Amino acid sequence: MPWIPLSEIQVKGSAASQSLGEKKYFERLSMASSFKKALKSGKFLVTSEVAPPKGTNLEKMHHHIELLKDKVDAINITDHQSSVMRFPSLGGVLLVKEMGGEPILQMTCRDRNRLALQADLLFASSRGINNVLCLTGDSVILGDHKEAKGVFDMDSSQLLATIRRMEKGKDLGGNDLDGSVSFCAGAIVTPEANPIEPQLIKFEKKIEAGAEFIQTQAVYHLDNFAKFMDYAKQFPVKILAGIILLTSAPMARFMNKNVAGVNVPQDLIDEMASAPKGRALDKGIEIAGRMIKRIQKEKMCDGVHVMAIGREELVPDIISAAGLS
Amino acid sequence: MIRSITRKKSDEEIDRLLDGLGRVFIIGCGTCTTLTRTGGEPEVRAMKERLSGQGKLVTGTMILPVACDNLTGEALKEYGQQIDQADVLLIMTCAFGVQTIARQLKKMVVPALDTLFIGKENGIGQFDEICTQCGTCILGETGGICPVTSCHKGLVNGPCGGTNNGKCEIDSEKDCAWTLIYNRLKELGRLDLMRTYQKPRNHQGEPSPGKIILEASSQSASGQ
Questions:
Q1: Does any domain span residue A283?
Q2: In a designed cystine with B153, which of A152, A203, B8, B124 is the match (CB 3.0 to 4.6 A)?
């Protein structure tokens, strides 16, 4: 969908609606997202993510979107990732849209109560943003505004249910909405969580609440992931395996120690350490590409979500290392 | 027994709050802050020594038996003269005690402690928050373990992605409430409760500030 200025949006008789014809214009606004179509197509999906900047200099984000927009099925824009205050994900998804890409709006429940979340969903919908990834959100304490109030008025499954309710024309207060919304809604799961059982109950609740797709936390033990998929395949949801680029052996050890549910096996750490000096990134790209290849070849799941935190410019290399470009 | 769990403010903050106030009367409490070693006899004595060392005049000290009790007013009268001589009361009780004392006396009060939570001593020197008094109790659906209190995010539909080996993402000393709830409900054969979707919580069970006025009829009914 081409960019439509805010002043023109959903206003009958506006220049945009007249130029297209009223009916066609409103049809286009409510058009299913291309990501939703891709989910239904059965093709092997690739999504990636871009983090907004701390500040108003959008150059780097612009560059990353430019690199990715034609190579992936959708680009997630993170929402104050790790509770670090940044340019908003809503602003980021608008930029993706403006640049002709397919954005996924990440929304956490950490910073907004149910009024603000619903309002942002209305705004997103009015701007043709139709993909939302629903997250509970990291604790405020982990971020850079440690004394802030963590809101958590809702959780990820409740946000999903809220979306489905709004699609039926009602807000959470039971009031009618003037103008409809339609979203392709997703959520996350941590296949390596310990203990796993409570996580799986939550996973099932997210699907029941309306998740159409799941992007997983990073997986490295693909045999374990295959077992998770044996279980997950029974549910009507598309699953994209999380791939985080390893940038060095110490980075892998750091994640093992500090990131919940991430477990890089020793053989991969050794492989990273074996890379010649200055070539660790190449090794990381090779490993990520190899993992994606195997996931696709063995038809483990429906696609991958590639994260190269701080190294987004390398995602195209990972995709080509996986033989997908 | 429920306890008010406190932690001493930093010396810097106490000094800032007492800046320019030369004469201080110190009040501790024989109940919760004695248990938590934040406002019992040894802590009051140490505070007196520290302030005296700074050149302040400590006009007196006392340990109220139960600072939050209505009898506090009577107990304070016994120290009337020493209290009158002070510029400020430095209070080493929980905030409930601070407010009870402030209501009785026309004196500026300075809390020496922060009141952290209403909790329970679950082992010697270990205090855990038990109830946040949210006003919409869901213990009947969680096997008697409160996720509103015991989950850092107060989540009611299961764990977040930050749960790590049964511990919380903010502190590896803190248990993940949802691991505890899962284990309890599994033991009780009631995991169906955890699988049930909980709608967004009512955060206005009793809009703050809480106030309950029993109706005359219900008072007489309870007296029958």
A1: no
A2: A152
Are the C-beta atoms of A92 and A64 separated by less than 8 Å?
Answer: no
- Domain identity same for B111 and B135: no
**Helical H segments across chain A, by residue range:** 15-20, 22-29, 34-41, 59-68, 89-98, 114-126, 156-167, 197-209, 222-232, 249-258, 266-273, 280-297, 315-321
- What CATH code is carried by the domain that includes residue B41? 3.40.50.2300
Any domain includes A321: no
Does residue B203 fall inside a structural domain? no
Predicted TM-score of the model (pTM): 0.92
Q: CB–CB of B170 and A155 under 8 A? A: no
Is the CB of residue A77 less than 8 Å from the CB of residue A49?
yes
Structural domain includes residue B110: yes
| Interface list for chain B against chain A, based on CB atoms closer than 8 Å | 152-166, 169-170, 176, 178-179, 181-182, 186, 191, 194-195, 197-201, 203
Q: Are residues B20 and B103 in the same domain?
A: yes
Taking the C-alpha atoms of residue A32 and residue A167, their distance in angstroms, rounded to an integer, is 13
Probe site for chain B from A106, A141, A155 (most B CB atoms < 10 A): A155
Residue A116 burial (CB count, 10 A) = 12
More confident residue, A39 or B220: A39
- Mutation to test the B interface, candidates A118, A136, A192, A204, most B Cβ within 10 Å: A136
CA B172-B174-B175 angle, 5° bins: 105
- At A277, list the tokens: 């000096």
Cβ-Cβ contacts under 8 Å between A and B: the total is 94
Q: Residue A266: inside a domain, yes or no?
A: no
Range of the domain at A85: 33-246+300-310
Residues B48 and B77 in one domain: yes
What CATH number is attached to the domain comprising A237?
Answer: 3.20.20.220
Which whole number is the average pLDDT over A247-272?
A: 95
Domain that holds residue B145: 131-195
State pLDDT tens for residues A287-301: 999 999 999 999 999
Q: What is the rounded (10 degree) CA torsion for B82, B87, B92, B93?
A: 90
**Span A32-76, pLDDT tens digits:** 689 999 999 999 999 999 999 999 999 999 999 999 999 999 999
Do B106 and B184 fall into the same domain?
A: no
* Number of domains into which chain A is organized: 1
Closest to A1 measured CA to CA, from A16, A15, A13, A14: A16
Q: Do both B88 and B140 map to the same domain? A: no
pLDDT computed for residue A188 by the predictor: 98
- What confidence tens digit (pLDDT) does each residue in B8-27 have? 999 999 999 999 999 999 99
Distance CA B116, CA B203 (A): 20
A212 in any annotated domain: yes
Q: Are residues B97 and B172 in the same domain?
A: no
